[in-house]
Amino acid sequence: MSLAHRSLRLGRIGAWLNPGYGDDARTGFAIQAESLGYPTAWLGFGRAPVSDLALAERILDATSAITVATGIVNMWTNDAADVAASYRRIAARHSDRFLLGIGIGHPESVTAYRQPHTTMVNYLDQLDAGGVPPDRRILAALGPRALRLAAALLGGIDSPLGAVIGGFTVGVLENLAGAYVVGTELKLATALALIVGVLLFRPTGLFGQPSAERV
Question: Of 68, 9, 7, 6, which Cα lies nearest the Cα of 33?
Fold first, then answer.
């Protein structure tokens, strides 16, 4: 029998758990956040090597309802194949509450920062090959080329037509907002807000198809 993934419960406001705190403290904070009704706990990691995703798994084991999201796993310091293997291990028990957040990070934090757009595309391809469904991951976008990639995700990464429409929609909105609403300084933030807003309600994008698990 084939079952579509259940939608993740992210909500409008979540609890971001600073990586400056230890794992014990952040596990306790996540438990408290769940008791207070927060729908999502976002785990910051900076550039730390965390490809085993052990903290996310620990918090999921210690809670029962809150969604746990990584925000973010750094692509430079975490091998995509290892991250995919860890995702599959966690998803076997918590697929309806775990969101893999990945990103390229800031150039000043990584000495090997080269060709970030190409790195992101290759990393996503490796996650695809490793069995991480598009609707169970979210991408942090920094800069125009990363925004274009995020726009393709908005339309639906498995839909060529959706990717084109997503890119066109984001481009038009970004320029209109910059010219008439928020000014040039905030036009990128406006476009990213649109992407996040759509993906909260439709994780596969506007034209993407939900993935299915065979059980």
Answer: 68
CB 138 within 8 A of CB 200: no
Question: What is the CATH number assigned to the segment(s) 1-140?
Answer: 3.20.20.30
State how far the Cα of 44 lies from the Cα of 25, in Å rounded to an integer. 13
153 closest CA partner among 163, 143, 165: 163
Q: What pTM was estimated for this model as a whole?
A: 0.69
Amino acid at 32: Q
Give whichever of 69-78, 115-124, 151-160, 179-188 has the largest mean pLDDT: 69-78
Decide: 151 and 207 in contact? Cβ < 8 Å: no
Beta strands in the chain (DSSP E): 2-4, 15-17, 40-43, 67-70, 73-74, 98-103, 137-140, 212-214
Q: Which of 104, 102, 109, 94 is nearest to 30 (CA)?
A: 94
Torsions phi, psi for 5 (to 5 deg): -60, 140
Q: Which residues face 138 on adjacent strands?
A: 101
**91 vs 20: CA distance, rounded Å:** 26
The distance from CA 193 to its chain's CA centroid, rounded to whole angstroms, is 14
Note the pLDDT tens digit of each residue in 47-87: 899 999 999 999 999 999 999 999 999 999 999 999 999 99
